[in-house]
Each structure stands twice: as C-alpha cells, then as structure tokens.
Amino acid sequence: MKFGSFAVAITSLLHALAAPTPVDIEQRADSAVTPIGAATIASYSPYVNFAHALAAPTPVDIEQRADSAVTPIGAATIASYSPYVNFAAATYCSGTATWSCTACKRVPGFVPYATGGDGNGVQYWYVGWWPSGSSVVVAHEGTDPTKLLSVLTDADALFGKLDTALFPGVPSSVQVHSGFRDAHASTAAAVLAAVKKIIAEKGATKVTLVGHSLGGAIAALDALYLKLNLPSTVSIKAVTYGQPRVGNQEFANLMDQKVTDFSRITNLKDEVPIVPGRFLGYHHFSGEKHIESTGVWNACGGQDNTSTDCSTGAVPDIIQGNLIDHLGPYEGVWIGTLSC
C-alpha cells in the first residue's frame, strides 16, 4: 500500500473509532457513568501521540519552509536557457558526432569531440566545445522507455555509496541511487578524458553539464565528479531537465556546497522530479527553476521547495502528475526523438 493510501486508511480508522456506533446510542439510555482512573487515562497516551504524528509535518518540511522563497524569473534569463535545452534534446539523436541533427542546428558552431553509449546498457553521451559559450559541454541522454535496461536502471532505487576512486574525499554518509551511480560510472573515465583534452587544447576554464531525465541524474553526478577531479580554476555549471532525485540529504548538502551553479529545471506537472520519494530518504539539492507555463518560470529557493509554485508542491504524488510534461515543451522545445 502506498503511503498516501495508508494515511487515508489510518485517518478513516481514527474517524471510525471516534464515531458513536448504534450500540453506543442504545446503551446511553441505561448505561451507568463511572469515573476512569489515572492509570487507565495514562495508558491512552501512545494513541494520542500516534494521531498527532500522522498530522504533523515532517522535519524536512519544517526545514524547507524557512528558505522556501519563490521568485519570478525574467524573460531575458529564460531566453538564456535556449542552448541548454537543445543540448539536452540532441542527446536523443543520432547526428551528434557530426552535429547535424535538428536540435544540433539550433546551437550552431558547437564542435563535438567524443560520443558514446548505445542508449540501452549505456546512455548516449557526447562531449564538445561550445565557442559562443566559452565552455566545454558534456551531455547525457535520458530514459528511453522502449529500452528495457534504461527502465531497469530507473527502477533500481536502492541507496549506495559513491566510489571514492571516482569521488575522492566523499564520506560514506553520502548515499545515492545505485542505478544512477552505476550508469555514471560506466562513462566517467571516457568523459573525463575528453574534457581534459578540450581544456588542454582550448585553455577552457568552464565545463557545463546537461541532461534530461536519467541523463539529468548522470549529469548531476558528473558535475560533482568533475568538480573533484579537475583543477580548482575550472568552474562547473549544470543544467538539467526533468531530473529525478539522486541521493540522500547528505548528498544534497554536498552538491549545494560543491556545485553552486546548478539549474534544475522542472516542467508543469511532470512527476519524474518527485521520484524516488522523500519517504525513501531521497532529497533534491537546491537550484530548481519551475516552469508554470510558457514564459512563466519560478526560482524555487532551498531543497525540495514545497510551494505549489514549485515541482514538489505542484505534484504531491505521481497520480496527480502528467508524464507528457516530462518531454516538454520547454519554451517550445520537446526533449526526445521529436527533436531529431
């Protein structure tokens, strides 16, 4: 039974316990009234506390209300995200090696250096040089529902520790979705090698990570990975679309500390950003930009902002979500094979 159904069932049970039954009504006519002793009264304390616990907000909710400011994002800033959504859309296309796909052509001048993946066991990815943005770009494909292994990766929601060979100095208390961790590890070495090559050739001082859906989760891990494995003179920026939760509270805090330029874009009623659930111990890091409609974006302060103007508040459960919103449109751009 899902937690929401459980809570409804418990609430109904509490109401039923409080309601008089027909037997109660009949017996009031001739029932004796006797005082109840202190010991019996005290024995009911656990039940009262249980009822209060069901109604109370969780500590996570309380923490996030303190910094849950929501501010509108201006038109110029919204427009500045156009290249990133096309970088994300291009990951689903076969023309990235020659930069010839439809989404590719919307970001002219980009020079691909390395590509990889098969879209099944390993998500498609590419690394290249973006002259107009003066940045190395690393982009990862999201989940293609027709590819079984991709779906299985998303379904594997167990926590696991990060490999300190890839993430030096990260404590064992930092836990992430083990499927996302393994997907990232399968491309990490090749991505780092390509990034280092471009930095050496171009004198680059900025790396931008981009991804959609599962690709957003991999991009988030890549952002931390590159931050820990590149010189401190190289800045890290990340932009993800429809990204699910990746790790626990300790991971979210570490991301906020290490990757300060992160835009986690969520769209309308997309339910993917609310999974895996917070009740499993997953937490989003900061940086959410929530799209309410075309041209109307909100900057959502804090981690997992519960305002209804942000994803976690707008989509309280997957039943109230809309999977089509996961694909877009993101300011007119659909992410997936439609952009190829």
Q: How are the elements arranged and paired?
A:
Blueprint: H1 3-18, H2 22-27, H3 38-43, H4 45-55, H5 59-65, E1 70-73, H6 75-79, H7 82-90, H8 102-105, E2 111-116, E3 125-130, E4 135-140, H9 148-155, E5 159-161, E6 175-177, H10 178-202, E7 206-212, H11 214-229, E8 235-241, H12 249-258, E9 261-267, E10 288-293, E11 296-300, H13 311-314, H14 324-327
Parallel strand pairs: 4-7, 7-8, 8-9, 9-10
Antiparallel strand pairs: 1-11, 2-3, 3-4, 5-6, 10-11
Describe the protein's architecture and organization.
The protein is of the alpha/beta class and 340 residues long. The chain has two domains: 3-55, no CATH class; 64-339, Rossmann fold. The chain has helices spanning 3-18, 22-27, 38-43, 45-55, 59-65, 75-79, 82-90, 102-105, 148-155, 178-202, 214-229, 249-258, 311-314, 324-327, and strands at 70-73, 111-116, 125-130, 135-140, 159-161, 175-177, 206-212, 235-241, 261-267, 288-293, 296-300. Helix 10 (178-202) crosses helix 11. The model is unreliable at 1-31 and 44-66 (pLDDT under 50).
Q: Concise description?
A:
With 340 residues, this protein is an alpha/beta fold. The chain has helices spanning 3-18, 22-27, 38-43, 45-55, 59-65, 75-79, 82-90, 102-105, 148-155, 178-202, 214-229, 249-258, 311-314, 324-327; strands at 70-73, 111-116, 125-130, 135-140, 159-161, 175-177, 206-212, 235-241, 261-267, 288-293, 296-300.
